[in-house]
Design goal:
This protein is mostly helical. It folds into two domains: 1-49; 52-265, Orthogonal Bundle (MetI-like fold). The chain has helices at residues 14-42, 54-67, 69-101, 103-116, 125-132, 136-161, 164-172, 177-215, 220-230, 233-261. Helix 3 packs across helix 9. The longest helix has 39 residues, at 177-215. The two termini are 35 Å apart.
Length: 268
Amino acid sequence: MEHALENPRRRPSLAVRTMASDRFLAIATPIALLVLWEISVRLGIVDARFFPAPSSIFAKGWELGTSGELWGHMWASIKRLFLGFWLGLVPAIILGVIMGLSRPVRSALQPLVSGTYPIPKSALLPLILLIFGLGEMSKIVMVAIGVFYPVILNTISGVMQVAPIYYDVAKNFNASRWRVFKTVAVPGAMPSIMTGIELGAGMGLILIAIAEMMGAKEGLGFMIWNAWQLFSVETMYVGIFVIAIMGYAMALLLGEIGRKLMPWKQGR
């Protein structure tokens, strides 16, 4: 009888338990891998010259952090990534929505987008350095290129997948092109746009590291490359770990933004 009268609000819901389980797995899995790595190095199963123990990598990271060197490289990469992200994102969304809505524009520009997309972005670095030089702009442009293609392709696909009835309703209410753009095309394509943004952010992070290896004096990519030249393996791994953490942080941030923009997908 007491169980029957128990307030159901006090019992954790299935969604809360599932979320707690997901968070536990997200934390426990990398920790378990690091522990396994540490044990393997200490037992001599893994060569510490090429795969140093996580404890020594963390010690090196602490040393670089306290000296300020790590934060300087991180800030340089974050600044370039932020500027390049917006430089590639804004035109990709605008052009992607226009191409999705307009068949003539899509017919004219689709071959250019589809034809240049398969070109390895890292192969464009020499050309970008030739055009923009060794300064900041070349790194920002590399990030922008990496962000641009996933976003525009996913935006086009998302706009074209919006049910035609929504466009018909907007036309029946004499909605202007701008209103259709703002209230139908972009909201309807938002799931695909967010997928493109997540892919583009990851690609931008990859390309900024590559660009910094070739033509920079600071940044995480430069730190990794310089550590390779000096055979400072722990420093190399510190840079790799920091890039991985930045990528995970970006994924969490974009996921939270996606939940705010698309509340109807929170339960999935």
